[in-house]
Design brief:
homodimer, about 200 residues, mainly alpha, Tetracycline Repressor, domain 2, DNA-binding
DNA sequence: GTCTATACTGAGATAGAC
DNA sequence: GTCTATCTCAGTATAGAC
């Protein structure tokens, strides 16, 4: 009607982000989000199947970008190297969206219901990455392992970078990559040995 | 009070498992679960903070067992080898509970809300494993990577074994272990190359 | 144990685009 | 006319407050 031609969906997302930042997720009702966007509560639920989803639209864009890079990754790379090739390739996209991702991440971290939904999104993305690896000849179970392992590293790198931008995202990814490989070789000491590590 | 001395909590869990199997999770109300267990709806929510939690009590027992084995794992093992040492050690426990885990897994797989909660439980367990590795001297970020990578492999092995017990759980764990290591070395072909793999 | 807010669903009506 | 987006109204179940 007269609230400007900007898409209702986008208005709902912005209203939600603002209200969640102001009062917190639980103290914000779907009706309030809808009202600020100039529509009714029912319209909110037609755009988003539940209240949480309003914060998770960006995942599709990211996945689409990752898909393109995985499909064009060089031949002969190992499964996890394919994934990290794509992760590094989407760094500019993530950097460009940091001003939205950062406050969003804080809201999610403060809200168990949203943290739970984010895990679901990560699992879905891990599964999508696995299917792309299968297109490159990786068999089912190893592909799923690669998807989940890669996503764990990707999520750790991006989360750490959102928390503390002093270390660049590409460097965070490198750290995660090196850290993953070391999980097979770096020895750990038994818990008992910890009591006198320098003494023995 | 005459419904037998079996703990109300356990009766609620059994009622829930049965009702979910009969009608599905969404078509079962908390009041119905409570009624079958001989208590009121209010009592249900006193035992479980939300309806989903009634299916996720076993995680604590499993984690407790894993904790013991990680603490007593041999000195000098790499992070992921510590975790797989513990995973293999709890195989008998899992095998003993298969008659409960199997129907439970089917209900969870059929119910998105429950699958989401299970991811949360897995993430919590990954985090717990990470903290145990930190007690063995592994630093924070690598420990978290190991926790999530290990949990992904553990979950894949147990899920596959619940679906198809023809392959033993210990063998499923071995397959996951080997599969993980190969993610760094086994080459993949580019998607384009797939169209004529034998022709070139 | 009682009461209530609110997330979510379904059916039907309206309005505009094409 | 169809199709799509929205609103209105009525309802149920969860979960938290009292």
């Amino acid at each position: 009607m007269a609230l400007g031609d900007k898409d209702v969906r986008v208005r709902l997302q912005q209203s939600a982000l603002n209200l969640f930042a102001e009062r917190g997720y639980e103290r914000t009702t779907a009706a309030e989000i809808a009202a600020r966007a100039g529509v009714t509560e029912r319209t909110f639920f037609r755009h988003f199947p539940d209240k949480r989803e309003v914060l998770f639209d960006g995942a599709a864009v990211l996945l689409s970008a990752l898909t393109g890079f995985i499909e064009t990754a060089p031949d002969g790379l190992a499964p996890l190297d394919v994934l990290f090739f794509a992760f590094n390739a989407v760094v500019p996209l993530l950097e460009a969206n940091r001003h939205i991702s950062h406050p969003r991440q804080e809201i999610i971290a403060a809200t168990p219901a949203l943290a739970e939904r984010e895990l679901t999104k990560h699992a879905a993305m891990a599964h999508a990455l696995a299917k792309l690896l299968q297109l490159r000849g990786v068999s089912h179970l190893p592909a799923e392992l690669a998807g989940h392992t890669g996503m764990a590293a990707f999520a750790q790198a991006t989360t750490a970078w959102l928390d503390d931008p002093a270390i660049a995202l590409s460097e965070r990814l490198d750290l995660a990559y090196v850290g993953l490989k070391a999980l097979w070789s770096a020895p750990t000491r038994a818990a008992d040995a910890q009591t006198s590590p320098e003494a023995g």
